[in-house]
Specification:
The protein is of the alpha+beta class and about 550 residues long. Among the domains are: about 5-160, Methyltransferase, Cobalt-precorrin-4 Transmethylase, Domain 2; about 480-560, Arc Repressor Mutant, subunit A. The strands form 6 sheets. It has a 6-stranded mixed beta sheet with strand order 9-8-12-13-15-14. It has a 4-stranded mixed beta sheet with strand order 1-2-4-3, with helices on both faces. A 4-stranded antiparallel beta sheet has the order 11-10-18-19. Strand 5 and strand 6 (about 130-135) form a beta hairpin. Helix 2 crosses helix 3. The longest helix has 18 residues, at about 35-55.
Length: about 550
């Protein structure tokens, strides 16, 4: 939608005041201290109500008294940069990565009014804030009831399954013979209802028809070509590039594109990834534990999930970006149902898919699991190897990112996992959040404090320190865990979470971690040097004053994440 000019906004405000509050409009006076969490709840509720009522967008309006219907003005986030940073905070907290379409600033008789334009929840996908779905009941904010939730989720029945569509002109000659033979082999090992020999004896037509990717009249579906198509048949899926791109980021610039068949290409992508071993010392220990940087099954699971859940209607490549210490997998679309952590902690399993036929085909070939345990497996294997847990980025409505780490972020986290194999995955998630400076609740921290693994008070928990602060690579090089890049990542994470960070907040985050600096004065000076470095590298900028700086991320930093 086009941005409204001031005259149009004035008309819109008059209209909203006339219709007053409905399930898709909310008015608040809203002082500068108005809680971001409450805004997020209203975003969820209004987006869901807009979806159910079929309106183009909902509105949250600040600066209007909700009883007198009079414009009274608001001083909420008068700094424009800080106001716009609210968009990013919404992306971080909503289950769909949704945010405001626009934030309009309007003046009525010198009274400042803010109009937040909220898009409806995507078809078939209700919007949650911090894992909870909200709705409106008259003027009240309430949890989204099951009836409304089911009504939204049922909407996806109107969407055709892209992967199940017939490919005009495609024949068996367009499939890769090696991939087809491998598919039969993997199906026979995965399915117990029939013998391996019997599957091998099936004709190609019988095999493909039984798995649903070929119609009885011999026509092939897109799912068949994606998994089994020959390299020369990709034009049949044009304009979709049907490509997985492997890209090395950093000083070394390498890349390679892998096309059809994806059944084979996924393994070829994995073989490109440099997967050396690292050695990690236990807490105050002498004998290192040696592990691979990446677990093969986890990497293939990540690639296969990207293939299965890619929104192919967006005509985008799947990418695997390799950094020195991590891999980032990206596919087009949004996280289809729910929140990634729900699957990790077994709170839910998926019951619908964007590419239903493709998913079923890949399940039959033992490439993925339908109930979400594949995501849980990746997290558990990272924990088993004493490495940071993966991070999902669902902040964009057009892309899902998954980061898998190949080196520890904090030696103390790794040492705790080595010395305490009894920890549950939920407890490890809490430890991982602490090392990444993600807030944890008192209830989440309590069992770890009782075991003596963390110290501090809410919200400033930290690990009990080990004497060992380095990770020794098998090639003899030492990697400093607390390098400048480590601290810079922590600051970026803090600013991304809050939208803005003061020097006091940054000091509170970094100073306890600067054990190598003997005095507080030197620690404070180090923090200042880090901020100067980040400013010079155009990662952050000060939107406050020189005496009371307030740091926010540069647009280039947000775009590069």
């Amino acid at each position: 939608m086009d941005v409204l000019d001031d005259k149009s906004i004035e008309f819109k405000l008059r209209h909203l005041l006339t219709m007053w509050e409905s399930e898709t409009v909310e008015f608040k006076e809203a002082s500068n201290e108005y809680p971001t969490d409450t805004i997020g709840k209203y975003f969820s509720a209004l987006a869901n109500e807009a979806n159910l009522r079929g309106v183009d967008y909902a509105w949250l309006v600040f600066g209007v008294n909700n009883k007198s219907k009079k414009v009274v003005g608001t001083d909420y986030r008068t700094n424009k940069k800080r106001l716009q940073s609210l968009k990013y905070q919404m992306q971080q907290g909503t289950s769909t990565g949704g945010t405001f379409l626009h934030i309009y600033e309007h003046y009525e008789d010198n009274n400042r009014v803010l109009l937040f334009q909220i898009p409806p929840a995507p078809l078939g996908t209700p919007v949650a804030w911090q894992g909870i779905w909200y709705a409106r009941a008259d003027e009240s904010l309430v949890p989204l009831d099951l009836h409304k939730m089911d009504k939204i989720r049922a909407q996806y029945g109107g969407y055709p399954d892209w992967s199940a569509e017939i490919v005009p002109g495609a024949t068996l000659d367009d499939l890769d013979a090696t991939a087809l033979a491998l598919a039969k082999e993997q199906f026979s090992q995965h399915i117990n209802i029939t013998s391996k020999d019997k599957v091998i004896e099936w004709t190609d037509e019988t095999f493909l028809q039984k798995l649903g990717v070929m119609r009885d009249d011999g026509r092939l579906t897109r799912a068949a070509l994606i998994i089994l198509g020959s390299a020369s048949s990709s034009y049949l899926l044009s304009p979709n590039p049907v490509t997985i791109s492997w890209i090395v980021r950093g000083e070394e610039k390498l890349y390679e594109h892998f096309g059809l068949p994806f059944l084979i290409s996924s393994s070829r992508v994995y073989e490109k990834i440099r997967n050396g071993a690292i050695r990690i010392l236990p807490m105050n220990g002498l004998i290192p534990v040696e592990v691979k940087k990446y677990d093969r099954t986890s990497i293939l699971e990540a690639i296969h999930n990207a293939i299965a859940h890619q929104d192919y209607r967006m005509n985008s490549r799947i990418s695997v970006e390799e950094y020195s210490n991590k891999l980032i997998f990206m596919n087009a679309g949004d996280f289809f149902v729910g929140n990634p952590l729900d699957y990790v902690l077994a709170h839910r399993s998926a019951n619908s898919y964007r590419n239903d036929l493709l998913v079923k085909f890949m399940v039959n070939l033992n490439m993925i699991d339908t109930i979400g345990s594949g995501v849980q497996y990746i997290y558990q294997r990272q924990a088993d190897n004493y490495l940071p847990l993966p991070d999902y980025d669902i902040s964009s409505p057009n892309q899902v990112g998954l980061t898998i780490y190949g080196e520890p972020l904090d030696a103390n986290y790794a040492a705790i996992l080595i010395d305490h194999p009894e920890l549950s995955l939920g407890e490890i998630v809490t430890l991982d959040n602490i090392q990444k400076c993600i807030p944890v609740t008192r209830d989440e921290a309590k069992p770890l404090k009782e075991k003596g693994l963390i110290v501090g008070n809410h919200p400033g928990y930290r690990f009990v320190q080990s004497e060992q602060e380095t990770i020794e690579l098998t090639n003899g090089a030492d990697v400093k865990v607390h390098s400048d890049d480590y601290y810079i990542d922590l600051v970026i994470g803090l600013v991304k979470k809050n939208g803005i960070a003061t020097r006091k907040q940054i000091n509170a985050l970094l100073i306890p971690k600067l054990e190598a600096f003997p005095t507080k004065e030197k620690k404070v000076r180090k923090v200042g040097n880090l901020l100067t470095k980040m400013k010079n590298n155009e990662l952050i900028e000060n939107v406050g004053s020189k005496k009371a700086p307030e740091w926010t991320l540069k647009t280039t930093t947000l775009n590069s994440e």
